[in-house]
């Protein structure tokens, strides 16, 4: 069990919308919610600057009796508003916690950040399991009362390991977070969780894609190191970026210094990215994201 809980009002929901930009969208959505007795408490919109004419909206609303009326509200919205504007949309109660499975290798810094934040109720999630290709972190995970599954990845049998992982995850996870999981996932694995696998890459992408970015950054003599959290696609470290940050370094820092300094940035960046996803603040459009931050 994951003790602690994020206190969310049972009567609050989030509505995310993507559609072709056109007059009347906001009026149609707000009128629909008004007529159903809802009170809009937060609102943010964006119109694509890619000249492809896409409109993006995130709003939160309060509605007494939301839980009892959720299905009918979704059906009516779909029929009366979404169909008319050909919307891609989601309507999610704020009290709903997403199931966030974690995948790790040997590094524990971002893993511990997510475990600790979730256990103290700082992240609106439950962690059904941790999967790792190494057994090193079993004790740290099981101390939180979370199942730990060690699935070794033999060089030529990555597919068998992925099959076991997918079987464990099936029906148990809404989101998979690669918390420094150092295996490249196959297209089939990625396709099983489209836009629902989040990675933390330990560089300020697009610099230093791939393995050992800190060593390569040190050899390059960079003055900034960074971390990037992105959705995972089959193209390594090329997925839509959710969050990034950097830290200053100098000629006085060794490669080990860069790793140590970078790990704090990784923890901060992944936490912010995961929280945005869990709070339904991210819309993916092409290979970019719209992040409706507070
Ligand atoms: N399909 C994808 N899989 C993964 C992605 C991704 O963007 N798409 N991100 C990586 C994370 N990562 C850097 O952030 C990364 C992990 C692993 C490697 C790598 O070269 N791995 C080797 C094995 C290394 C080892 O055994 O220790 C490999 O898989 O052959 C590069 C970058 C996670 N997966």
From TrEMBL:
It is an enzyme of class 3 (hydrolase). Residues 14-96 form the ACT domain. It catalyses: (6R)-10-formyltetrahydrofolate + H2O = (6S)-5,6,7,8-tetrahydrofolate + formate + H(+). Pathway: Purine metabolism; IMP biosynthesis via de novo pathway; formate from 10-formyl-5,6,7,8-tetrahydrofolate: step 1/1. InterPro entries: ACT-like_dom_sf, ACT_dom, Formyl-FH4-Hydrolase_C, Formyl_transf_N, Formyl_transf_N_sf, PurU, PurU_ACT. The active site is at residue 237. The keyword Hydrolase applies. Signal peptide: none annotated. GO terms for molecular function: formyltetrahydrofolate deformylase activity. Pfam families: ACT (PF01842), Formyl_trans_N (PF00551). Keywords: Hydrolase, One-carbon metabolism, Purine biosynthesis. Its EC number is 3.5.1.10. Belongs to the PurU family. Catalyzes the hydrolysis of 10-formyltetrahydrofolate (formyl-FH4) to formate and tetrahydrofolate (FH4). PANTHER family: FORMYLTETRAHYDROFOLATE DEFORMYLASE, FORMYLTETRAHYDROFOLATE DEFORMYLASE 2, MITOCHONDRIAL. HAMAP family: PurU. This is Formyltetrahydrofolate deformylase. It comes from Isoalcanivorax beigongshangi. The gene is purU.
